[in-house]
Amino acid sequence: MGDPASRGAAPSDVSQADLSAPAGPLSAAMKNVNSYDRELTPEEIDRGAHRDAIGGMWEEIGRLQFEFVKSRGLRPDQKLCDTGCGALRGGIHFVRYLDAGKYYGLDINASLLEGGRRELEKAGLAAKNANLLADDRFEMSRFGAKFDYMLAVSVFTHLYANHIVRCLTEAQKVLAPGGQFLATFFNAPTSAHLQPIKQEPGSVVTYYDRDPFHYSPEEMTMLGSLAGLKTEVIGDWSHPRNQWMLAFTPA
Questions:
Q1: Which one, 71, 142, 227, 248, has the greatest CB density within 10 A?
Q2: How many CB atoms are closer than 10 A to CB 179?
Q3: Burial class (CB in 10 A: 0-12, 13-18, 19+), 175
Q4: Which residues pair with 105 in a beta bridge?
Q5: What are the b/e assignments for 91-128, b being 16+ CB within 10 Å?
Q6: Percent of the chain having pLDDT more than 90?
Q7: pLDDT in tens, 118-132
Q8: Do strands 131-134 and 103-107 pair parallel, antiparallel, or not at all (unpaired)?
Q9: Which whole-number Å values give the CA distances from 111 to 28, 45, 225, in the listed order?
Q10: Mean pLDDT of 193-204
Q11: Residues 159/137, Cβ–Cβ less than 8 Å
């Protein structure tokens, strides 16, 4: 989540932030994990490469996450922070549904956010004033808002445990009373599960110590407790690649 704006930018200026500031510690660390921080060229964005860069299944997973969060009680007048929003695969649906200015999207990759802006323009949603911010420290507090709902789909699946704790700790600071942070992970049957797992459906092979990562529910619960959050293991929510769902709430 490369940092696009000066640290002192006002929340109202977030969507207009400068995208050229240097990357911080998380993006540097992630260079050794996966290629998610690779900046797409304008030509690639024109071709729609941002849709593939976030894992494809644009319509299916985008609609799935929107319907799931709505089933958890999301209302149009509430604020949602989409952490690791990418090119707005789910964000398009949330921006359309939420009142203007209620959608906040944060990602490590500024070029994917630019792809998301293109998607909003094509969908006629530019006037909904989505707040988009590139940041590689999960500093959701830079938005200057408290969130009723937070979401991280296909984020923890690519992170080491210490990065997950960073994300959860930052999320805990901005969750509104009664708020919930919904996040997906690849399930492992035991903690410290060193063997690879072939996740079905989807046939994704996950690992204990390299991307894509798997964790046991007990490990995820422990990481949540380190950040001062309670963890509800929702489990299967019909994700086509067998990612499970968690709900973190203030302890």
A1: 248
A2: 21
A3: buried
A4: 82, 132
A5: bbbbbebbeeebbbbbbbbbbbbbbbbbbbeeeebeeb
A6: 76
A7: 999 999 999 999 999
A8: parallel
A9: 17, 8, 33
A10: 97
A11: no
Tokens of 248: 């973190």
- Phi, then psi, of 182 in degrees rounded to 5: -95, 130
CB neighbour list of residue 75: distance below 8 Å, 6 or more residues apart: none
Domains of the chain: 29-250 (3.40.50.150)
**CA–CA separation, 123 vs 133, rounded Å?**
20
Residue 23, token pair as written in the block: 């990357």
Which among 122, 120, 138 is positioned nearest to 130, based on CA atoms?
Answer: 120
CB count in 10 Å sphere of residue 61: 20
Decide if 107 contacts 84 (C-beta within 8 A). Answer: yes
Report residue 215 as tokens: 């964790």
Give the helix/strand (H/E) hosting 1. Answer: none
Q: Which two tokens stand for residue 27?
A: 């993006």
List the structure tokens of 198.
Answer: 């072939």
